[in-house]
TrEMBL record:
Its cofactor is Mg(2+). InterPro entries: HAD-like_SerB, HAD-like_sf, HAD_sf, PSP. It comes from Pyruvatibacter mobilis. One of its GO terms (molecular function) is magnesium ion binding. Pfam families: HAD (PF12710). One of its GO terms (biological process) is L-serine biosynthetic process. It is an enzyme of class 3 (hydrolase). Keywords: Amino-acid biosynthesis, Hydrolase, Magnesium, Metal-binding, Serine biosynthesis. The active site is at D88, D90. It catalyses: O-phospho-D-serine + H2O = D-serine + phosphate; O-phospho-L-serine + H2O = L-serine + phosphate. NCBIfam families: HAD-SF-IB (TIGR01488), serB (TIGR00338). Its EC number is 3.1.3.3. The gene is serB. It comes from the Bacteria. This is Phosphoserine phosphatase.
Length: 298
């Protein structure tokens, strides 16, 4: 059965060399000739193996690269280009955790960030951890949310190229977050998403009440969103891609046609079918077989 092994480097730190490819091909003798998606950056190697062998092939390639900062992805070639992208927001589409940034404005940043980290690692249940952190923000002026968005929130490198390219090719892009609608509504516009979903912070007299309006959008709701959007577009899950970094993303990552852990917590990186450890979000396009000259704006 035809599969593909893709190698992706970050050209700002280390280019993908012929020697790297030779090392991988020696470790994976089933691999065919290199097909460059972007010279010195991303390359496909077609491999005739059964899907059950993909994990072993990936492990062999990683071992051959001996710790080099190169991402390795293995998958079947069927339905490679996805028609639906569902992405987490905090620490995925943006480089920050919004609730931590709000807490910093309230002077309790370190305490809240510790809870966030434990929740994203899967050490704490998501819903009670979210309620606990939001309760600590009680009384924060609504104006601080706008201030945080304007001064503290930055898009992760490559995300706008990903959404523009996928949408140009007919895909639907959804931002689904365990964070807050105040931020997802703004980030979705800036990052090029078709739709956004998240939790809603309760406000009264221009201040946070310390409550989240039910129901909480957590791990199960992210999976339900993936399934719902796929059904709306008459897609099988095989035609979907999900990306995130935290434990609350795992259900959708495991269910998608290709689920991707992005600079993720260990529990997520270990369980995800694919992972990005060294490169930016444009790797989502290389995973789908897009060549660099097919990127939007290229």
């Amino acid at each position: 059965m035809r599969s593909v092994l893709t190698l992706i480097a970050n050209p700002e730190t280390r280019k993908l060399s012929a020697e790297d490819l030779d090392a991988v091909r020696r470790a994976v003798p089933e691999a065919g000739a290199p097909a460059w998606l972007h010279e010195d950056v991303a390359c496909d190697l077609l491999v005739d193996i059964a899907p059950a062998e993909l994990h072993a092939i990936e492990a062999a390639a990683r071992a051959a690269l001996d710790g080099l900062p190169i991402d390795v992805v293995t998958q079947g070639t069927g339905h490679r280009r996805k028609a639906l992208l569902v992405a987490d927001m905090d620490s995925t589409v943006i480089e920050q955790e919004c609730i931590d940034e709000l807490a910093a404005e309230a002077g309790i940043g370190a305490h809240v960030a510790e809870i966030t980290e434990r929740a994203m690692r899967g050490e704490l249940a998501f819903e009670p951890a979210l309620r606990e952190r939001v309760k600590l923000l009680e009384g924060l002026p609504e104006a601080k949310l706008e201030q945080v968005f304007g001064t503290r929130i930055t898009l992760s490198p490559g995300i706008r190229t990903v959404t523009d390219t996928m949408r140009l090719n007919g895909a639907y892009c959804a931002l689904v977050s365990g964070g807050f609608t105040f931020f997802t509504a703004r980030v979705a516009v800036k990052a090029g998403f078709d739709i956004n979903r998240a939790n809603t912070l309760e406000l009264k007299d221009g201040h946070l009440t310390g409550q989240v309006i039910d129901p909480i959008l957590g791990r199960a709701a992210k999976l339900e969103s993936l399934e719902e959007f796929a059904a709306e577009k008459s897609l099988t899950l095989e035609s979907t891609m999900a990306v995130g970094d935290g434990a609350n993303d795992l259900a959708m990552i495991e269910a998608a046609g290709i689920g991707v852990a992005y600079h993720a917590k260990p529990v997520v990186a270990q369980a995800a079918p694919a992972r990005i450890d060294h490169t930016d979000l444009t790797t989502l396009l290389y995973m789908q077989g897009y060549a660099r000259d097919e990127f939007a704006g290229a």
